[in-house]
Design a protein that fits this description.
Layout: H1 2-15, E1 32-37, H2 42-49, E2 57-62, H3 73-83, E3 89-95, H4 105-114, H5 119-125, H6 129-132, H7 139-151, E4 162-167, E5 174-178
Parallel strand pairs: 1-2, 1-3, 3-4
Antiparallel strand pairs: 4-5
């Protein structure tokens, strides 16, 4: 069982003080927050490709690095990073070959139903679940949209640069979509 494996490893990790190289402060040393995708290929690749070490930035993730509106929980995390944790710039970093690109929302809903989710549960959660679960057609356009949601937020100071990038999940190569300094 995975949980048992994790707990056994963690016990030894703490007992051997393997956490010591990762000790850091709550404030990001590089004063930035990154909003990116939850894709497993980015867990180690993204920080390495950006030359980031533990404690240097805040990282917020969701499926596709999609920021839908100003009340999104991701936006809340970004605001906390900016106002409480001294971040001074924001990076939206999506990636090529993302599962949210051309996501078949109808198929996803059908898979939910196969796993026992009823139509009533779907409608109770959100009357327009298909729109809420929607992915994107263009990763660059999706990044531009997420950047604009952040830039247009009334609680984001105007002098905060918001950058947009797309990373290749195989090589780590970054493509600049929006330079927030300009």
């Amino acid at each position: 069982m995975l949980l048992e494996e994790i707990l056994q490893f963690n016990y030894k990790f703490v007992e051997n003080e393997d956490y010591k190289p990762y000790e850091t402060d709550v404030i990001p040393n590089k004063r930035a927050v990154i909003f990116t995708c939850m894709d497993t290929r980015l867990v180690e690749l993204l920080p390495k490709a950006l030359n980031l070490k533990n404690g240097e930035v805040k990282i917020v993730k969701n499926a596709g690095a999609i920021l839908t509106n100003q009340h999104d929980s991701v936006m809340k995390a970004i605001l906390i990073a900016l106002h409480a944790l001294q971040a001074e710039e924001v990076y939206v970093i999506a990636h090529h070959n993302c599962g949210m690109n051309h996501l078949d929302t109808e198929n996803l809903i059908e898979r939910m139903k196969i796993q026992g989710i009823t139509e009533e549960q779907l409608n109770q959660f959100d009357s327009n679940t298909g729109q809420w679960l929607k992915g994107f057609d263009s990763v660059e356009d999706s990044v531009k949209h997420s950047v604009s949601v952040i830039e247009d937020h009334p609680l984001v100071p105007e002098d905060i640069p918001v950058h947009g990038l797309v990373i290749d999940p195989r090589t780590g190569k970054l493509d600049l979509v929006i330079n927030g300094y300009i």
